[in-house]
Amino acid sequence: MELTFWGAAQQVTGSMFLLTLEDEYRILIDCGIDMGNLSETMPLYPGSNFPFDASLVNLVLLTHAHLDHSGKIPNLYREGFEGQVLCTSPTMALTELLLLDSASINQKKLKAYHRKLSKGMAPEDFNFDPRDLYVEKDVYKAVDRFVPIQFHRRFNVKHGVHVTFIPTGHLLGAANILLEVEENGETKSIMFSGDIGRSNYPLLQDPHTVPQVDYLICETTYGNREHQSIQDATEAVEDVIRRTCIDKPGRLIIPAFSIGRTQAIIYTLHKLYAENKLPPIKIFADSPLAQRSNVVYEKYTGFLNEEANDFKREHGSLFRFDTVQYVEAMKDSQAIDNYHEPCIIISSSGMMEGGRIQHHIRANMENSYCTILMVGYSAEGTLGNRLLNSNGNIRIGTREYPIKANIEQTDSFSGHGDIHDLLKFVRQQDKVQTKKIFLVHGEGSSMEDFKSTLNKEGYNQVEIPEKGQKYQL
Q1: Please, are residues 142 and 85 in contact by the beta-carbon 8 Å criterion?
Q2: I want to staple 74 with a disulfide (CB 3.0 to 4.6 A). Which of 106, 134, 316, 421 is the partner?
Q3: Closest CA relative to residue 264, chosen from 200, 360, 168, 184
Q4: Distance CA 77, CA 60 (A)
């Protein structure tokens, strides 16, 4: 069989791996968008969004819902894919929310495209091809072909091929995917890590133990870094709230992904409030997508950790409490600018590349009483990354803004495992039995450093694939 690395190869986002069996049966593991660089750098199949013929793919296995793993699934169906997408039930629910949100954004882009085209703007002047933009009907067509699979159930895909989803934390429903393939009387096992979670992360179960495999595909987002502990994260939030909203009448803005990060932060704030560690400061949860995601989290509490289940039984809800206000309409989002009391604003997106967070940032960039707290990874080229690496000024749209707000960062709410979590994951594999370890989903330095760490541990069969590189397994 042949494994081709079509995404997240020597970069963080865009996970997409194609496994072609000897009988030409093709399994695509994840089908994600490259969030840092939305323009393809690979030669594409003629007339396609992909570097392969989508109609020849037989099956998709989805590790979790985030768009850098799921965001091109509707495109796959539009280009002739007729198979199923296997994933867990929470992943199915969250992926539908994320894809519908993307479709809504695409619809606005299409309207703007046709409006500007009618006014004489040339098609080549746009930074996207309208044929690549899926809309709501495409999402529903795709999601209708999703099949939910239970964790730890060894599912027979076809004769000689079995798949097992293993909980990995990171996000509600996220999984490591184990593939067992029998060919020519020999069974080979392949493990795709997806995104590896952390121990003791808010709401989520710890990553489960994985079995010994022949081939391991491992993410490396934080392959050379350590996170603050979750306890430190809670204390850091208390500290920044005190400095920003209590010691002075300021506002704390937290850019956060609507699915995963926002739930962890609001749940942490709820716990602080319940323990009387947080004064009655208004919290604006400004993301309709986060509200819909909260419903999914509350529905699938059986997938959450024991602490979260105990907390819900005691307080009735994970995410609703006295001082939090969920903002639905855009006019109410914009009206937050007129709220002059100390407050906390949690809004998407986490990398600031879109969503309501942008108008909050623009409105408060020159406010010295404001703190912008970055709580996760921002890919190179995104507004979040540029803000962290600015020299005192930043361009948003056509305007240059002087930065007077305080910019702070913590990775303690990251759902990605750090170097210790990654090592724990890899150490479950025998140094001799494992034939190859492939490192993906990381920046170059992170991959190289993690490879060096693994080599020192005695894992000498480590590869860092290039995009489009093929391996015979």
Answers
A1: yes
A2: 134
A3: 200
A4: 11
pLDDT of 324 over the 90 cut: yes
Q: pLDDT band for 38, please (50, 70, 90 cuts).
A: very low
SS3 per-residue string spanning 255-286: ECCCCCHHHHHHHHHHHHHHCCCCCCCEEEEE
- The Cα–Cα gap between 302 and 311 comes to 13
What is the distance, to the nearest Å, from the Cα of residue 291 to the centroid of all Cα atoms in its chain? 17
| 105-125 per-position pLDDT tens digit | 899 889 988 888 877 777 777
Q: Sign (positive/negative) of CA torsion 368, 369, 373, 379?
A: negative
Task: Return the CATH number of 230-409, one of 3.30.1330.40, 3.90.580.10, 3.30.499.10, 3.40.50.10890.
Answer: 3.40.50.10890
Which positions ≥6 away from 179 have C-beta within 8 Å? 19, 27, 29, 61, 161, 162, 163, 189, 190, 191, 192
Q: pTM above 0.90?
A: yes
Contact assessment for residue 170 and residue 415, using Cβ atoms and an 8 Å cutoff: yes
Ordered by start, the domain boundaries in the chain are: 2-225+417-472, 230-409
Residue with tokens 């609001």: 266
Mean pLDDT for the chain? 91
Quote the Cα angle for 64-70-71, to 5°: 145
d(CA 30, CA 17): 7
Do 174 and 208 form a contact (C-beta atoms < 8 A)? no
Whole-angstrom distance, CA of residue 94 vs CA of residue 101: 11
DSSP category for residue 243:
I
State CA 420 to chain mean position distance. 20
Pairwise CA distance, residues 174 & 31, whole Å: 15
Secondary structure E strands in 8-133? 16-20, 26-29, 59-61, 84-87
